[in-house]
Amino acid sequence: MRILKIIGISLAAIVLLIAIVGLFLPSTVSLERSIVVNASAEKTYEQVNVLKNWEQWSPFLKMDPKSKIAYNDILAGPGATYTWASEVTGEGTMTIKSASPYSSIKFQLEFKGEGLSQSDFRFEQAGANATKVSWSFISDIGNNPFARVFWTFSTTMMKDAFDGGLKDLKTQAEK
Q1: Full pLDDT tens readout for the chain, 175 residues
Q2: Could you please report the per-residue DSSP string of 22-73?
Q3: Which one of 33, 48, 63, 65 is most buried, counting C-beta atoms within 10 A?
Q4: Which residues pair with 135 in a beta bridge?
């Protein structure tokens, strides 16, 4: 009985410690990753702007090739929408909110049960036939200290996923 009491107190202390640490972590998560693609901004831009192209390079589809994907009637540009359902990556909707041809694309992400986030792509000339592609993500995770701790550790995984996705995007655009 004494051991159960010690275990219970220890678990409660750990949960309390995590909650306290979480209160001091940022309520916003943001990250940005970049790569130089040896292709024109036009060709690179189309890999991102046409949502069906994501099937060739999205790191999140790689995580779960069995993801169920659906598109709306708009194939590219503002209003184009992509929904996914996956046992690995959850469920959600990604919508292009704005697009400046060959320059930037802004997405709204809605993760089922988790709220809205924003993701952006920027395309900048990086040479005669090269484009620097920057992929960013920002999300307000609120005041939940456990969510703040979770996202602090998840950011490393997301950076790796973005880097892998950008490498695959590079491969597709350079074909």
Answers
A1: 788 888 878 887 787 777 777 677 777 788 999 999 999 999 999 999 999 999 999 999 898 989 999 999 999 999 999 999 999 888 999 999 999 999 999 999 998 877 789 999 999 999 888 999 999 999 877 777 777 677 777 778 889 999 999 999 999 999 9
A2: HHTS-SEEEEEEEEEESS-HHHHHHHHHBGGGHHHH-HHHHH-TT-EEEE-S
A3: 48
A4: 33, 121
Q: 25: how many CB neighbours lie within 10 A of its CB?
A: 15
Amino acid at the residue 14? I
Q: Which amino acid is at 125?
A: Q
94: phi then psi, degrees, rounded to nearest 5: -120, 125
Q: With respect to CATH, is domain 2-173 assigned 3.30.1360.70?
A: no
Sheet holding 68-71, edge to edge: 28-37, 131-140, 115-125, 104-111, 90-100, 81-86, 68-71
Tokens found for residue 120: 């952006």
Q: Please give the model's pTM, rounded to 2 decimal places.
A: 0.83
